[in-house]
Design brief:
The structure holds two protein chains of two kinds. By secondary structure, chain A is an alpha+beta fold. Chain A has two helices and twelve strands. In chain A, strands 1-2-4-8-6 form a five-stranded antiparallel β-sheet, with no helix packed on it. Chain B is built from three helices and eight strands; from the N terminus they run H-E-E-E-E-E-E-E-H-E-H. Classes of the chains: A alpha+beta, B alpha+beta. Chain A: It is a single-pass type I membrane protein.
Chain lengths: ~190, ~170
């Protein structure tokens, strides 16, 4: 079983374009997309967290976070929204956003980067576009395979117990009948003959 | 005339400080309830906000376990979302209050924090209670263990009866 190591925090440098104007205060956003799962299972929760850090000197305005990676064809959204905006992210502040999705199919799936767009300063009209880190490819296990491996198998054990009952009950009943037939006769004490 | 004044006041409120009075929130919560395959529990509250003064397009701030954070909004600005994650091992169940502040409340809160004053005096415009019933972490006892215990018990009973008979 390949344990998914999705917690590698590979921060993508979103605002990696060097600012042209010297001394101009700009916002720079670092964004990460992380999957907090041990296993990816068909029809079960996948917790996806996006965190955005502003490492620039100015506040980022109208930050829009869009993840087009989870199409409704392949995923159900259990909680959260895939497209959100933050009005402003102050310098040195960070925000996080969480979405829970449920895959409809199994197989390999490539978790791609989400898009972050923002205005790098209060009075700038240009829109900076960046991307979050990419969690990469992950294998989504079919629910049947997952269940076979990890379920408590209560039903299977019940059937096993039912199969064992005749094998145990028949000798027990035979023994019990004989016992109840002779148990009422008190046994003579040892070492004394009648 | 009265209507005109009312309209004017609303207009002023909208233009001026985007402050929201008589806030009403309608929230839908989501928390992870199966902790067997995830490492972190997600707490998500989706809500809509309506103000009795008709203020729209309001920036909100929320106080959660992460501190005071900006609230995410849908692009049309109608739906808000507060979310965070906690380690599955340490996530607590029960009611989790989320206090919501508007711009003025946020400013007051920051001021109180800077001055090391009591932040509880700042009134949130609304509070959401997100209920987390607790997450399933797998069975208490493995079924294999139960089967072994049952087998040992049957064997022990049979053996004691046999030794009593043979003695």
């Amino acid at each position: 079983m390949k344990v998914l190591s999705y917690l590698i925090l590979a921060l993508a440098f979103v605002g990696c374009v060097l600012s042209e104007g010297e001394g101009e205060e700009r916002a720079r956003l670092l964004a990460a997309k992380r999957v907090h799962n041990l296993y990816l299972v068909e029809g079960r929760d996948i917790v996806v967290q996006y965190s955005v850090h502003n490492v620039g000197q100015a506040a980022a305005i109208n930050v829009q976070l869009t993840d087009a990676g989870f199409s409704t064809e392949d995923f159900d959204i259990a909680g959260g929204q895939l497209q959100v905006k933050f009005d402003r992210i102050a310098p040195n502040a960070n925000v996080s956003h969480t979405v829970v999705v449920k895959p409809k199919k199994y197989g390999y799936f490539n978790f791609t980067a989400a898009e972050v767009s923002y205005q790098p300063s209060e009075d700038s009209a240009e829109i900076q576009i960046g991307y979050t880190s990419e969690p990469g490819e992950g294998g989504i296990i079919a629910f049947r395979d997952y269940d076979r491996k990890f379920s408590p198998h209560v039903f299977d054990w019940l059937i096993f117990a039912l199969l064992m009952i005749p094998a145990l009950l028949v000798p027990y009943m035979m023994w019990y009948n004989i016992k109840s037939k002779y148990a009422t006769v008190p046994r003579g004490k040892k070492g004394r003959s009648d | 005339m009265k209507v005109l004044i009312a309209v004017f006041i609303t207009l002023v409120a909208v233009v001026h400080g985007e402050s929201c009075t008589g806030a009403q929130v309608e929230a839908v919560g989501f928390t992870s309830q199966d902790a067997t395959i995830v490492t972190k529990i997600a707490y998500i509250a989706d809500f809509t906000l309506s103000c009795s003064n008709g203020a729209k397009d309001i920036s909100l701030y929320a106080e959660t376990v992460d501190g005071i954070v900006g609230v995410a909004r849908s692009v049309d600005g109608l739906k808000y979302q507060v979310s965070w994650v906690e380690d599955a091992a340490t996530a607590v169940s029960g009611e989790r209050p989320i206090k919501l502040y508007d711009d003025q409340g946020y400013a007051a809160l920051r001021k109180a924090q800077r001055g090391n004053e009591d932040t509880s005096t700042v009134q949130p415009i609304a509070t959401i209670n997100l209920y987390h019933p607790g997450a399933y972490r797998g069975p208490w006892v493995q079924s294999e263990t139960m089967a072994i215990i049952a087998a040992i018990f049957v064997y022990y009973y049979a053996l004691t009866q046999k030794t009593r008979l043979m003695a």
